[in-house]
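Structure tokens please, single chain.
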Amino acid sequence: MAALFSVAAACSLTTCTPSVTALEKVRMTGVLRVATVNSPTSYFVGPDGATGFDYDLASGFAKQLGVELRIEVVASAPDALELARLGKVDMAAAGLAVTPQREAMVSFSPPVRSVVPQLVYRMGQKRPKSWEELDGGRLAVPSRSAQTELLATRRKQYSGLKWEEVEEGDAEDLLEQVADGNLDYTLVNSDLVSINQRYYPKLRVAFAGAESQPLAWAFPKSHDNSLTQAAADYITGAGKLELARLQDRHFGHIEAVDHVGAVALATHMQTRLPAYRKSFEAAARKSKLDWRLLAAIAYQESHWDSAAVSPTGVRGIMQLTMQTALHLKVDDREDPLQSISGGARYIRGILNDLPEDIGEPDRTWLALSAYNMGTAHLNDARKLTQKLGGDPNRWLDVRNNLPLLTQPRWYRQTEHGYARGRQAMEFVSNVRTYYDMLVWLSESTSPPLQSVQADSTLLDEQTIPAGGAVAAEVAIPDPSEVLRIRAPIL
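Here you go.
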């Protein structure tokens, strides 16, 4: 009895306290501390605030835990990993590839997505088909990256393989150097390659450096895996559907426009957009929209050609049908000011008519599909989605069912029948890409979008789809010149 009393007294006079798990600590403090990086694939501040795949997924995890998400932005993914290893943050969410060396340092969650490491070179240079064909060309990768581990394993097979490890600069910096011709090769994850090919159309993929690699969240390595297990439960449970939606939201449209289309957009931003920008801005202010979204719709529809006419009779820069123009009281569809104003009021009307419980960005993507194929067909697609067990308020679920509107078995069950659902899918995907590019070109301080020399390879690929059946010409530089398109100050 005396022994028990002495132990209790000792605990009362010292810091003797029951152990607290990592998960309990997060809940007690009310904060989930997450290390990440500024990157189009992880975290950035967009027109509507903070976003990014890793940020959005971590936000969902914090919400499930009932705590606040606190982001700590660091210079590189290895830096984020190091903060997690040292326990200075609760976790790192920065597009971290799971590798044997890293698994010895930290604990990983189940994969949140996967990528393929790709060797990238510049169009016009000889394409290497294997590591042996690099022929002494300069290859650089970020230091301490997963790519350095991959290259080290490849050197065991290809003894002549050499590379530089760059301390300053990330993977996007190296992609820019390749596009500029200042670097021969770099090894970059496929998601970043696809995103940056829109802005640097000369980038080309030579070959895959490895098979698909999983990306995951990193946690301090400890006997206490309570927070890691909670993350695993979220990713494999409640967050599983959210993973698919975030994958579509952030990466589902990045390959919609090829390098020729990217060049054409940048060219038309200089040659065509200035004549209409004030009209887009005025209509957007009046309709409480982002002018770049209006401009992206117009570019998909007509490539900013106010005289565009489709074989089906839709006209003007916003490609309004006769019925829609009458409804909007647009007297002259080929008048740019009337067309832009009418298109803005049309998309605003669609947005307002959608059920209030549809959140962004799904609300905008669903409205865009209705802009293309009509609200009635969108409602049919939403009802089919619900009938098939999907969420009619989520763009990903509805999008996956749009092709059903072309199949008799399904469209006969709808109120309004056949619709070109696949065309609506393509329309939304292209507008999303054009919008992203317009935002980048109007806000980024990064080097400008590059054009491509009009050689025979390019000319063979210069088919660019416009909205509906509207054809649009492509501004191709003279074969003897290389046009460098500067990002205008917008």
